[in-house]
Write a structure and sequence with these properties.
single chain; mainly alpha; two-stranded antiparallel sheet
């Protein structure tokens, strides 16, 4: 895995966590409107139990699995943050942080789809886009060195 692929995992991790939380919320929302059935007079035992109760238990079990997965993903993201924090050069560290943890574009541009002006790393730091790419490359080399030491 290249240093760039390693760092890009943070974005994928955040997307996965958001998707998992969305799934849990969707399951919870599906429970609204469901009600306990009072049709039985209570004299007969229903072996499978109450339907809403079973649905709630399934949601709770799913939520516990998702929370465990989120914990694992969060640990991985924190590992990536520690690697970036280990980069010795302040400017390289800032650019890597903005790019891989803040998901900021390298260059400022106008987004036609949203109609918004997107401020890039170049504008925020005052460096030219070309210099940003150069510093980014050096930062990736530093990450590569750090990852090789950790293996």
């Amino acid at each position: 895995m290249t240093p760039k692929e390693y760092l890009q995992q943070a974005y994928k991790i955040d997307r996965k966590i958001k998707l998992d939380l969305l799934k849990v919320q969707s399951m919870k929302d599906a429970l609204h409107g469901r009600a306990v059935s009072y049709e039985s007079d209570g004299s007969q035992h229903v072996p499978q139990g109450n339907g809403i109760e079973n649905a709630i238990l399934r949601v709770i079990e799913y939520e516990e699995r998702i929370n465990a997965e989120i914990d694992n993903l969060t640990e991985k993201r924190q590992e990536i943050e520690r690697v970036i924090a280990s980069v010795p050069d302040d400017v390289q560290r800032e650019i890597l942080t903005r790019r891989y943890l803040g998901y900021q574009d390298f260059e400022s541009h106008y987004d036609k789809r949203t109609g918004k002006y997107i401020v890039g790393i170049d504008e925020d730091t005052g460096y030219s886009a070309r210099q940003i790419y150069r510093i980014h490359w050096r930062g990736l080399q530093a990450v590569k060195t750090i990852l090789e030491r950790c293996q």
